[in-house]
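Hey, can you fold this one?
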Amino acid sequence: MGFDIARIYLGVNKGWTVNQCAKKLLEWYDRHCRPLPWRQKINIYHTWVCEVMSQQTTLAVVVPKFSEFVKHLPTIHDLAACDEQTLRQLWSGLGYYARARNLNKGAKFIVEQLKGRFPKSYHEWLKIPGCGPYTASVIASVCFNEKVACVDGNVVRVVSRLLALSEDVWSSSGKAAIQTHVDQMIPEERPGDFNQAIMELGATVCRKSKPLCLLCPIQQECLAFADNCVEICPPKKPRRDTVDVELFALVFWRKATDTVAIAYRTKGFLSNTVGFPLIPATEASEIKRVIQSLEHLQLLELSSRFSHSITHHRISGNILVAQELENPSINTESVPWLKLGLPKSFDWVPRTVVVSKLSSALDNKVFKLFENYILGYIKSA
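Sure. Predicted structure:
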């Protein structure tokens, strides 16, 4: 069924269908909602943190990280005062570190500008740095019972199937139509539970693949189920072409003290994070020449390669290990070094605790391969 016909169908039956869908969803949610830690008791701070964590990250990863996060930073004041290194460690494994940085900025704004008092409406939350419409709508509806609809990927999928939308979903008009429909569905009472219910339905029943239609509480209202077109609703979201990127990761190792150098990256992939310097493969020859010109370094390239994906980039690369470093002050003032954009300073960390300092999964992969090399090196020595 096409987009316009589906909307006509909803227009004719809106008085019964929309209200009935909301009622069924809430009844289903009361029976089947997952006992997630932030659902046990309404807590504005917890709701904010969990929603930011859950963006583009699976709940299987989020739940343990959320518990660790709020244990170390139990209040908005703790988050506002958190130093960057600790914040990176607590966020490690969640990806998209900019989200953590925005949380920190928002917390500082609330503590410093609002005297620690949380905003109480959707429009007030939009004024918080780093807080967009989706996050603001979740907090406003769940914590303050404001009738404002939340639309994420799960909701798009549920509504697309409810209306049998097999095209035009991802355009501006398509998204606006879905938002309008959810605005019509959301009830005056329990708007926060409704938002959580429709997102929960999309995550657990109305799944992207192999949806559990026979368990769906709104199956009777679902046009895609009636027309046997669930699998094509919504259409696949247009994706940018994947770009292959070749990188070199630089690992400086002081064998005498068994310490590894890590740096704060200010440019390129994973900028504003802590890890190993990442160099484009096109600059590899010059990098090798610069490193080999430094005294007390023995440079080698590991045979094992790493691979990683960041948004639409498919990254693969080699690891350069510079070992036997006796002088902790690498000559970063040399012109070639600066031209290549290598870090101006490094922190030397015992190899046994490096993992706790790294910011990204890519760095963890690099370090694991380096560890395998070290273990083999020690064993053969």
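Confidence is low (pLDDT under 50) at residues 1-16. Let me know if you want another pass with a different chain boundary.
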